[in-house]
Amino acid sequence: MILRGISFFIFFVILFGHDSPYSLDKFKPVLNMSKLQAPKSSFNPLYSRHYGDFKDYSNKYFYLQDNKYMVFYMCGSHNRSELRFKNIWSVNTKIPKILEAEVKLFSLNAKREFTFLQIHADSTLKDAPIINKPLLRIVWRKEYHNLYNHLWAIIRISDSLLSNNYKKIDLGILQKDFFNVKIIVVKNMLKIYLNNKLKVKENVSYWQKYKNYFKAGVYLQDKGCAKVLFNRLFIKE
Fold first, then answer.
1. Where is the signal peptide (predicted)?
2. In this predicted model, what pLDDT tens digit does every residue of 150-206 receive, in sequence order?
3. What is the pTM assigned to this prediction?
4. In whole angstroms, what is the distance from residue 213 CA to residue 231 CA?
5. N or C: which end of the chain has fewer CB within 10 A?
6. How far apart are CA 71 and CA 144, in angstroms?
7. What 3-state DSSP class applies to 137?
8. Where are the alpha helices (DSSP H) in 51-125?
9. Are 140 and 110 in contact (CB under 8 A)?
10. CB of 38 within 8 A of CB of 82?
11. 1/63 Cα distance (integer angstroms)
């Protein structure tokens, strides 16, 4: 019985030994409107969380660091620790849909690429077309076109299921400290600001038949591990 109790304690510490991001008021609004997906998109009771169910919750892939930062950590190709935000919308919205983040990235030993912000099409609606693709991914890439350690906006430029065409826009070299990202979608226009400078302005009217949602966290496109810290995360949907 003693050994069993010790084993349970060790398991508890490994799984829940971190403080909860929900303990900070600044993160409560975004957590109230999101769910946690880890290590895959399907619900895993060890590492996933239902919409708004974050009170006193943390795990090794999602936790509070230094009583300041909401952390997403993951290893393994196509694994993720991400928030999916509940509200869905179309790019032709007349009310601006906004995601703002103050974020710091650690590529650790990520082999090629990881995503930390997304606009993704909803694949669960019965009364809307389904594509199950992201319109936008903001990523770190180890190397692309002889540029190393840069951030990129990867935008799908066609709504055709037969096309995998993407536009890749260089956002600059990864900063060592926190930086600010702001994504705005309104009236079929996508804008991305980096540290208050407009980096992307694209007409995405071809995407207006799809319903979308924001995502934030870390998603590995290849082997290795990566870690993302948010000092601030704000959603207006």
1. none
2. 999 999 998 887 777 899 999 999 999 999 999 999 999 999 999 999 999 999 999
3. 0.91
4. 21
5. N
6. 26
7. strand
8. none
9. yes
10. yes
11. 30
